[in-house]
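Regression report. Comparing outputs from two consecutive submissions.

Submission 1:
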Amino acid sequence: MWIAPWCLAASSTSVARPRFSYPVAGNTTSPQLPEPSLFSRNMERTFIAVKPDGVQRGLCGEIIKRFETRGFKLVAAKFMQASEDHMKNHYLDLKDTPFYAGLCKYMSSGPVFAMVWEGQNIVKLARMMLGETNPADSKPGSIRGDLCINIGRNIVHGSDTVDNAKTEIGLWFKAEEFVAYTPCAQAFLYE
């Protein structure tokens, strides 16, 4: 099986990208398609975690598939069981709510699949993909709208702001756990 060499590159500095051309009316030469600028135009990272109920139901692959299909890039992931103290730090902004203690206990009750995804406007778009916190308010086509019923078992967490994404990513991942690469499809996703 032949694999294009630019799909095998492991880092963004060593990627040999194909050049694409397209015809221009009245021009006998074909101009080159410009390289996309990876870290411009609202490129962001967000934290997404499949909660214990999503893991137990075998939905990690489905959730990954939806983000990959959308065109987002997975840059870090780990399968782990977080401690209750870790979850208390994660949900610190909810500490004054009546459900805080139960949420932290539940989130530490089983394995979680933690991920960092990268893409243009990803924080906002990921929240749209996830659906409303209450699955009953989520639209069909969203992850929660399609895959769950109850607010207490809404299968997935996603950062709600860019600042919270940075905080959550820092809480769950170390710098050495990230992988830098350029996806083969990048030129077909971004102008």
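Submission 2:
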Amino acid sequence: MATLKDSRRSRIKKSIRGKIAGTAERPRLTVYRSNSAVYAQIIDDAQGKTLAAATSYVKGKVNNNIEAASKVGKAIAEKATAAGISKVVFDRNGYLYHGRIKSLAESAREGGLQF
């Protein structure tokens, strides 16, 4: 059974995904946070392909704080620029724009991504 928080995030996520989509010109930068790590992917929804991905996951360790999210943002920006991507659409995936999500987004902007 889904918790109240999960069902709320699912409802918000559906609303967000109804409004945005990644294209070849502006792929979608989506973020997922778990209890142990932060993940980011750049996705072209038209082709259904992941163009770049980064994570803070380290086997056997919990690496899930604001500093780790900042490193993931820098890493995804570097991988995106290497793939020739400069503009993206940010998909916060139903999470509040606060804490780890905000840190990841700001460091991706500092790394050169525009959104």
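Expected: both submissions complete independently.
Actual: both completed, but the second showed a warning that disappeared on reload.
Relevant detail on submission 2: DSSP finds three helices and four strands in the chain.
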